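WARN  no MSA supplied for this record, continuing single-sequence
INFO  ligand: iron/sulfur cluster
INFO  echoing inputs
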Amino acid sequence: MNQFQYVRPTKQKAAIDAFGREADTQFIAGGTNLLDLMKRGVMNPTKLVDINRLPLDRIDRDKGTLLIGALALNSTVAEHPQVRQLHPLLGQALSAGASAQLRNMATVGGNMLQRTRCYYFYDTAMPCNKREPGSGCGALEGYNRMHAIFGFSDKCIAVHPSDMSVALVALDATVLVSGPKGDRRIPFGGLHRLPGDTPQRDTNLEPGELITAVSIPDNPFTKNVHYLKVRERASYAFALVSVAAALHIENNVIRDARLAMGGVAHKPWRLTEAEKSLIGKLATEATFRQAADVAMQGARAFKHNAYKLKMAPNSIIQALKQAAAVA
Ligand code: SF4
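INFO  complex generated
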């Protein structure tokens, strides 16, 4: 591991000032992803700004929203009474992520900023445009079993690994950010980027911008929700495909719907057209199959991940059935 400067400010402004405009500075909180990346030489920051002393771990109701501080731990949020009551989909997604030990260390802000688990990204002997722009993409013609079926480019076909983010994009969350130019709010769907020609950029955050909280508006999705995660072993594995499904059902008619997928794109993949196809329909398996067909339009596989073209629609149908409690 390279040498680096380490600072631990106690004020938000001091943390942002300490970051400065240096491209090789990183904020660190739980460190559950960044430390691995540093040990492997994938990321080599020259300065770490430890934000653990900032007062950013509160979970509060505020004007029709639930505000969750960026330093709230994944395990705390998953078990929080208001999360369980108001946004059970988020609790389910968080509980599906990582291991109990990691959930006790990982923060909400860090969870959304974790980096892809593409094997070539972690192997510094292999080409990777995300790690080293212009070096090529080892996965394109390599072993691409975990990789994207939507939204990829010829520069990068990696997928975003967070479960929590799939629920947050489905729930229309907003990310609160503070930076050298002041505060701003980013709709969750605009936080992460598609790879395009700049796969080295995972998000639309500017240098020195710090995520301070995430805000989730009240919604009617308190009952008929399900987070389905398909993975290679029962725990502590990243999703091959995941689905966040939330339905508002009255008299077996779907009044509103939210649907997003993980493990299929460089960002949490919201399925707005499929959501529209559900509204006003009976909550039946036939309706869910139709939505899955809509959701899969434009999907394309690579040599080793064609199984996702079947797994993804089947997962959507299953998640919607579970959410609606349809046998
Ligand atoms: Fe790197 Fe993306 Fe290619 Fe993986 S898919 S090797 S992360 S450029």
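The CA atoms of residues 92 and 130 lie 30 Å apart.
INFO  checksum written, moving to next record
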